[in-house]
Amino acid sequence: MKNINKSAVFLAFLTALSAAGCASKTGSAVSDEVVTENVTEATVDPHSVVFDWQKLYEDKLKEFASSGSFVKYNYGTGSMFDLHDLDGDGSPELIISAEPGADLLIYTVSGGNLTEITSVPKGEAFYIPQKNAIEFRFTAEDFVIGEYDTLDGGSFSQIVNYYDNSRSAAKGGAITYMIDHEEVLYPEFLETLSEYSDPASLKLGRKYSFGDSSIDYALYVSESWGAVLSRSQKDAFMKTLSEYPHEAGDDTAFEIADLNGDSVPELVISEGEEVNSVCHVFRFSEDGSLSEAGEGMGNIGHVIYDIETRDVLVINGNSISAVSLESGELSDYSFSSMSDSVFNCGRGHILCDEELLTALN
Questions:
Q1: Average pLDDT of the chain?
Q2: Which pLDDT does position 218 carry in this prediction?
Q3: Are 254 and 270 in contact (CB under 8 A)?
Q4: pLDDT given at position 119
């Protein structure tokens, strides 16, 4: 984490809760929060929370799944999608990836209408919460080209673009750095981009498979936790997150997700998305505290949850195992057992001030 003031965030969080009662995201219709202090039991079914974008995104996902662009999911390949609020208005955008390396399609909902904002040709997209900005990047063998944008009023506005062909140095090519189509020296290149490249970012587009259960979970559960969790559950999540060690680094991320189908979410903390980045899964204990299930899991920065089989899957190198949340023990698992309704869990939010409050409201 970077410059995170735990006490200030925690106080701000409690103040927001006190002022709002049951805080909810834009466009939701939520019944009064059910008050319970038993954190090991569900409060309100997340499906009871209604947002205006849910049905529109569901229709778009089903339309895409019936199109010629759709590719059946097969661990690591095939079509996937993602939800993330890219403009800070409280409602997520929908990002669809036909397969790794294919175009990204980004949609938003405004005024009850679904709009395709942009298509990113064979590129990658990253959300930078501390700047409320998005990086679009295309990486070729010899160069990288990209831009940083903001989303406002349903359209992207470019902040700055860049070009870097230093990857061609090994072939003896002349190295060129460009900012806004003008050639610059390397120090200026770094300084110009550092405002956006230094803060941690989330890679977008490939989180949920297109199975019926994963579409249901993504649209009708994943964005509703802040509206249905009890005060005690929120306090426990905030305490664990705000006390998480700094040594994990700026790339630390977290996610609140139900990993056993009991409607009581777990907390997953990811130490990064580089190789050898582990995840930590925390569950509620009877005394109301969060305790870690086993030790660090996997080495790819996230776990995989199979919604149909209720298996929490851990990747270590080329091997895959199912993990017991009760004991933390691993058991053999075969990719052939995986259903078509899975999601990558652990990197829903960067662990920073902006995302802490967003996730729990």
A1: 86
A2: 98
A3: yes
A4: 85
Residue 38's pLDDT band (boundaries 50, 70, 90)?
low
DSSP 112: T
Query: How far apart are alpha carbons 137 and 125 in whole angstroms?
Result: 6
Cβ neighbours around 170 below 10 Å, total: 8
Are the C-beta atoms of 138 and 147 separated by less than 8 Å? no
Could you tell me which residues are beta bridge partners of residue 305?
Answer: 312, 343
C-alpha to C-alpha distance for 351 and 359, rounded to whole angstroms: 10
State the burial class of residue 29 (Cβ atoms within 10 Å of its Cβ: 0-12, 13-18, 19+). Answer: exposed
Q: Provide the angle, in degrees to the nearest 10, between the axes of the packed helices 231-242 and 6-20.
A: 170
Q: Is 174 exposed, middle or buried (0-12, 13-18, 19+ CB in 10 A)?
A: exposed
Cβ–Cβ under 8 Å, residues 2 and 250: yes
The residues, any chain, with a CB within 8 Å of residue 245's CB and separated by 6 or more, are none
**Spatial distance between the Cα atoms of 177 and 152, rounded to a whole number of angstroms:** 29
Q: Helices 212-220 and 54-65 meet at what angle, rounded to 10?
A: 160
- The confidence band for 69, taking pLDDT boundaries of 50, 70 and 90, is very high
Give the span between the Cα atoms of 116 and 245, in whole angstroms.
40
Under 8 Å between Cβ of 361 and 14: no
Position 324 scores a pLDDT of 78
CB 164 within 8 A of CB 189: yes
Residue-level pLDDT at 316: 86
Distance (Å, rounded) from C-alpha 344 to C-alpha 309? 15
- Least Cα distance to 214 among 101, 78, 349 occurs for 78
The separation between the first and the last C-alpha atoms of the chain, rounded to the nearest angstrom, is 21
Does the pLDDT at position 247 exceed 80? no
Rounded to an integer, what is the distance from CA 331 to the centroid of its chain? 27
Tokens describing residue 255: 């996610």
